[in-house]
Amino acid sequence: MKNFIRWFFGPSKKPIVEEIDLYAKISELEHRIVKLEEENVETTNCLYELGNSVNAVDARIDIVLNIPKHYENFN
Q1: With CB atoms counted within 10 Å of each terminal CB, which end of the chain scores lower, N or C?
Q2: Range of the domain at 46
């Protein structure tokens, strides 16, 4: 039990790094999150626009393929 108490309350073997500013790191991560969220919105908008373009082209192809019969024989 004495060894456990000595281990539990003893000094940590991990080095204490005082060079890292946690507030600066948190601030940097928050900035990165905001940037990623903005890029996510932009990517979503681009995908939406591409989907609409594909649907528009698909509709135009359907219009071209549905030529009335009397125009097919017209020369």
Answers
A1: C
A2: 16-72
